[in-house]
Amino acid sequence: MKLHLGCGQTLLPDFVNVDNTPSLFMAQLPWFALRFLQKTSFLNGDQLGFIKTIKENKRVIQRGDVLNLRYPDNSVDVIYSSHLIGWCLSHQQLNRFISEMKRVLKPGGVIRLSFFDFNECVNDYLQHKNTIELSKSIPFGTTEFTFKEKLKFLLSPNMHGGIVLNRETIVLLLEQNGLNRIQLLKAGETTMTPEQAGTIDLSQRSENSIYVECYKAV
After folding, report:
1. How far apart are CA 158 and CA 35, in angstroms?
2. How confident is the model over 89-135, as pLDDT tens digits?
3. Which residue from 1, 66, 63 is spatially nearest to 198, judged by alpha carbons?
4. Distant-in-sequence, close-in-space partners of 197: CB < 8 Å, separation ≥ 6
5. Cβ proximity of 104 and 75 under 8 Å
6. What is the DSSP string of 118-176?
7. Please, how many CA atoms are within 13 Å of residue 63, restricted to the half-sphere of its CB?
8. Among residues 16, 23, 24, which one has the least CA distance to residue 71?
9. Which H helix or E strand runs over 93?
10. In this predicted model, what pLDDT tens digit does every residue of 31-53 receive, in sequence order?
11. Domain containing residue 165: CATH number
12. N or C: which end of the chain has fewer CB within 10 A?
């Protein structure tokens, strides 16, 4: 089994795609209700498009809480997650997320994570001293929510204000949670076999991503 956690609109055909987006709840509504929500600006065109994708791909996307994975211990071969961490999980939640991945992973199984490199943001700030651009890279820290945005936020139980990450921090967290063979990689690189990697885009969002892979001890 291969899991794609926090899949969003990127659905991998050879993975079990898991997300907890409110769009999965919305996809259970009839189309007339969804069109009404769009007319009242509760849903935008992109969200409606995602809901359509969910309705058409019910077999390849599952609703799931990444902090309480529904899978048995030692049952998963590969776990992939792109740009979930670094934005959507607090420090405590991030440790729980890593612990859950390790729990369900088979001995010898692999995890591949990608996330935004906060070091690059800091370097850019030191060069340009633009505090507005800096604030955009701090998850939810300076965001002003409208009433409708607050409702959407409350429907996403994992999104409680993420912490920013860099290379040093992710390695420390993975080590603290007992994972090994931790490697930081460039876009396009992997330690996985072709069968393990499958349809993963190894260069996804290469302009602002860090890629890391690690394994559960045998």
Report:
1. 27
2. 888 889 999 999 999 999 999 999 999 888 888 888 899 899 888 77
3. 1
4. 112, 190
5. yes
6. HHHHHHHHHHH--HHHHHHTSTTTTPPPPHHHHHHHHT-TT-S------HHHHHHHHHH
7. 15
8. 16
9. helix 91-104
10. 999 989 888 887 888 888 888 88
11. 3.40.50
12. C
What letter does residue 72 receive in the DSSP assignment? P
**Is residue 29 a part of any domain in this protein?**
no
d(CA 201, CA 124): 27
Please name the helix (run of DSSP H) or strand (run of DSSP E) that holds residue 78, with its range, or none. strand 76-82
pLDDT tens for each residue of 58-88? 777 888 999 999 999 999 999 999 999 987 7
- Residue partners of 179: CB distance under 8 A and separation at least 6: 98, 102, 111, 214, 215, 216
**H/E element holding 36?**
helix 31-39
- Measured torsion, CA atoms of residues 86, 92, 97, 102, in degrees rounded to the nearest 10: 120
Q: Are strands 105-116 and 209-215 parallel, antiparallel or unpaired?
A: antiparallel
Q: In this structure, is residue 43 part of a structural domain?
A: no
Virtual CA dihedral for 66, 205, 13, 215, nearest 10 degrees?
-60
